[in-house]
Amino acid sequence: MYRFLLTRQWVILTLVGLVLIPVMIELGFWQLHRHEKRVAHNGKISRALDAAPVPAERLTAPGRDVPDSAVYRRVTAKGTFDPEDEVVVRRRTNSDDEVGFHVLTPFVLDDGKVLLVNRGWIPADGPQTAFPKIPAPPRGEITVTGRLMGDETSAASGIKDVRGLPDRQIMLISSGQQAHALGKKVLGGYVELTAPRHGDSPQLLAEPDHSGIGAHMAYAVQWWLFAAGVPAGWIVLVRRERKDRIEAAARAAAEESEKPDEGETADQASPATA
């Protein structure tokens, strides 16, 4: 009763199942690796935010990328803000998903180098073609503290670096582009300001979320359950097919037994013939 497994339909069904099992197992491991990567990323952010602040020039330098191990590290710098060369970053949202600008202000260090400081978010109240009104930064020499971030790229952020924007407006924060525009040595990356803060300053950016781990582990388990369900489903289908074939064979045998045999048919027909 299992010879039906050699039919074309069942051979194809079995082969499809054999292909699906390893594919689903691999998809489960892919989601597991994403879960592990997310956990490791959250741990890196947590350690960076908990570490004591260090001078920014220990972790970055002009013309260099910020090392991955230094991203989100709290850093300090001493110098003065240069609002004359301030620019705004377009199409940025705050914690309430309101669209506005990030305010990027050069911070001139004691040795003449420049550290780009993202002072926070302001709303886009006027036309997008006009330079928005920005609260002035603190005057004089101060010490700032913030989170060190790497240069933004279109590949990482998904934001297109549009050219031909209105004056003093940019799409991505790039220390290389700002070094070219300012004609000065600019430290790689930039800093998201956390202190100091005064009353009318831009809205400081929130700490990166490093508490959630997503649903990757649940997806991994789900794929593995699907993989286990393929052979279980195949067995159920085989048993159902076998049962249906047995029942069909029994009905055929019963119908055959109910038919009169040839001798009885001939005997019944003889009197009429006579």
Automatic annotation (TrEMBL):
Annotated region described as Disordered, given as residue ranges: 247-274
Localisation: Cell membrane; Membrane
Keywords, ordered alphabetically: Cell membrane, Membrane, Transmembrane, Transmembrane helix
Transmembrane segments: 12-32
A GO CC term assigned to this protein in UniProt: plasma membrane
Membrane topology: Multi-pass membrane protein
Main location: membrane
Ligase recorded as keyword: no
Entry keyword annotation includes Disulfide bond: no
InterPro entries to which the protein is assigned, alphabetical: Surf1/Shy1, Surf1/Surf4
PROSITE patterns, alphabetized: SURF1
Domain of life: Bacteria
Compositionally skewed regions (Basic and acidic residues) per UniProt: 247-262
PANTHER family attached to this UniProt entry: SURFEIT LOCUS PROTEIN (PTHR23427), SURFEIT LOCUS PROTEIN 1 (PTHR23427:SF2)
Family: Belongs to the SURF1 family.
Name of the molecule in the record: SURF1-like protein
Organism: Streptomyces alboflavus
Lineage: Bacteria, Bacillati, Actinomycetota, Actinomycetes, Kitasatosporales
